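This part of the workshop introduces the protein records we will be handling. Each record describes a single protein and holds just a pair of labelled lines. Instead of coordinates, the fold is spelled out as a row of discrete tokens. To make this concrete, we reproduce a full record directly below:
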Amino acid sequence: MSSQTFKNAFQGFDPNNLDLNAAGNWPIGIKIVVYIIVMSVVVYAGIHFYISEQHTQLEREVQKEVQYKQEFESKSFQVANLATLRKQMEDVEGTFSELLGQLPTDKEVPGLLEDISDIGRAAGLQIQVIKLAGERKEKFYIELPINIEVKGTYHQMGQFVSGVAAIKRIVTLHDYTLKPTDDDMLEMVISAKTYRYDDTK
């Protein structure tokens, strides 16, 4: 975009005389900036409130498993309560096993990266980067960060985020940036994370 075109896009806009009622008459440059800000807030809200729920649930169930194991060991001598404690353990282990089944194994991680790439391509995005970063050990699990860079329209990025949220494996999205490109597209850099249970604990 030439400097003259850039100036024309903002021509006639007075920041000291900002009237939201006349937003339809704002220069195209200001409309684009406001649109990008609003869309960024919408994407962030979606990621924050919906995609992170699976990660929170996994941590909650891991903590429950540890808690019930401790209770089981401390009360195992009480024969009267043993049947109840066993039932609680079975319930928690069933839920935990179900969530554990949603975590990829070492052998499945490359396939997960391919699934994310396929979702991006199906949404019409140009995939620039999808690669694993260094893993991080947490208390009960190992975090596997994935660096993602894609290019496309806002609608295509919305489809991509929804598609990643629907993957049967637990994948959460974090720390994204959106910026416009010279060809009227958007470029998004976002960090995805998947998790592997640390069975050495």
